[in-house]
């Protein structure tokens, strides 16, 4: 009898607790949805606002800048496996067929190019510090003479942190050895940038990893560390970022002070904010943040995830086809 009573009371307690948990879960979900709804009013969806947004592009030369990780590919646990889907590749290919298109990534240039696997666009690596533009696209006579790249193509190369390359190579070896003791840490060589990923590092070890990284990098002058999505980025501390790279590319293509250009930039991380700021300053084009969470940004519009980016790119190609006289 007493057991039956216990079971009944225990069952009721469990029911109450599970009801409370479910209620709390629903409340927090509702709060998150309300916060997103308030945020998206300030940064409307680039999909639902498409026609209105593109009104400003009519009669202008659209140039598309795309970040890679988190924009064209989902963020994955192994940075070497951030592959792009075939359908996304096809969408980017169509856009690059219609518009000048440039990928600006924190990755090393050859690596992001090996992920994207398209030849009809330009690649900028190392957070804007490794720029390569085919010579035939260059419209600005003041840029340096062209040179042959590894494939023998004539290109304009611009590497504003070239002098740091020996330091970065040395630091890569030292840092790789130092952080070996921290289980789950991964260091990625992005040429002018070293990325220390801590996504798989136990929470209690993350502080020790940070101390090691900070102390090791502190031994080299002229470098800085920024924090991205579960990654420390070590870079030359020069006044050059993705925003400068965007300006450099536009200038090289002959759009330095042109009012006839309509640049758009899609990116998901803190380093992309520099490019958003440049577009704001120029008063031209579209800064679009890829995020499913509300966050502080200089972007005017938003897309939730790479899947929405793909839809947006398809809309862009369709828009060009229906405005083919432009
Ligand atoms: Mg990104």
UniProtKB/TrEMBL annotation:
<comment type="pathway">
    <text>Glycan biosynthesis; trehalose biosynthesis.</text>
</comment>
<protein>
    <recommendedName>
        <fullName>Trehalose 6-phosphate phosphatase</fullName>
        <ecNumber>3.1.3.12</ecNumber>
    </recommendedName>
</protein>
<dbReference type="Pfam" id="PF02358">
    <property type="entry name" value="Trehalose_PPase"/>
</dbReference>
<dbReference type="InterPro" id="IPR003337">
    <property type="entry name" value="Trehalose_PPase"/>
</dbReference>
<dbReference type="InterPro" id="IPR023214">
    <property type="entry name" value="HAD_sf"/>
</dbReference>
<keyword id="KW-0378">Hydrolase</keyword>
<dbReference type="InterPro" id="IPR044651">
    <property type="entry name" value="OTSB-like"/>
</dbReference>
<comment type="similarity">
    <text>Belongs to the trehalose phosphatase family.</text>
</comment>
<dbReference type="InterPro" id="IPR006379">
    <property type="entry name" value="HAD-SF_hydro_IIB"/>
</dbReference>
<comment type="function">
    <text>Removes the phosphate from trehalose 6-phosphate to produce free trehalose.</text>
</comment>
<dbReference type="GO" id="GO:0005992">
    <property type="term" value="P:trehalose biosynthetic process"/>
</dbReference>
<dbReference type="GO" id="GO:0004805">
    <property type="term" value="F:trehalose-phosphatase activity"/>
</dbReference>
<dbReference type="InterPro" id="IPR036412">
    <property type="entry name" value="HAD-like_sf"/>
</dbReference>
């Amino acid at each position: 009898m007493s057991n039956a009573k216990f079971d009944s009371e225990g069952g009721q307690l469990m029911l109450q607790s599970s009801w409370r948990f479910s209620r709390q879960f629903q409340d927090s979900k509702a709060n998150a949805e309300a916060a997103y709804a308030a945020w998206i009013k300030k940064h409307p969806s680039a999909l639902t606002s498409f026609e209105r947004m593109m009104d400003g592009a009519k009669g202008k030369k659209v140039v598309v800048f795309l970040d890679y990780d988190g924009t064209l590919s989902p963020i994955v646990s192994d940075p070497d496996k951030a592959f792009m889907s075939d359908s996304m590749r096809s969408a980017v290919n169509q856009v690059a067929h219609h518009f000048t298109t440039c990928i600006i990534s924190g990755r090393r240039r050859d690596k992001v190019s090996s992920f994207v696997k398209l030849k009809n666009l330009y690649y900028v690596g190392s957070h804007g510090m490794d720029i390569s533009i085919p010579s035939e696209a260059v419209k600005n006579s003041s840029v340096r003479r062209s040179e042959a790249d590894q494939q023998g193509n004539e290109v304009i190369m611009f590497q504003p942190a070239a002098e740091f390359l020996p330091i970065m190579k040395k630091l890569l070896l030292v840092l790789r050895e130092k952080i070996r003791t921290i289980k789950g840490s991964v260091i990625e060589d992005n040429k002018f940038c070293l990325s220390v990923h801590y996504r798989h590092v136990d929470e209690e070890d993350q502080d020790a990893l940070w101390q090691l990284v900070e102390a090791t990098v502190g031994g080299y002058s002229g470098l800085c560390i920024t924090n991205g999505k579960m990654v420390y980025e070590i870079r030359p501390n020069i006044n050059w970022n993705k925003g400068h790279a965007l300006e450099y590319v536009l200038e090289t293509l002959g759009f330095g002070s042109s009012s006839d250009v309509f640049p758009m930039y899609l990116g998901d991380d803190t380093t992309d904010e520099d490019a958003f700021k440049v577009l704001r300053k120029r008063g031209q084009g579209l800064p679009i943040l890829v995020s499913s969470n509300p966050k502080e940004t200089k972007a005017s519009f938003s897309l939730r995830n790479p899947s929405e980016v793909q839809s947006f790119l398809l809309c862009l190609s369709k828009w060009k086809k229906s405005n083919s006289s432009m």
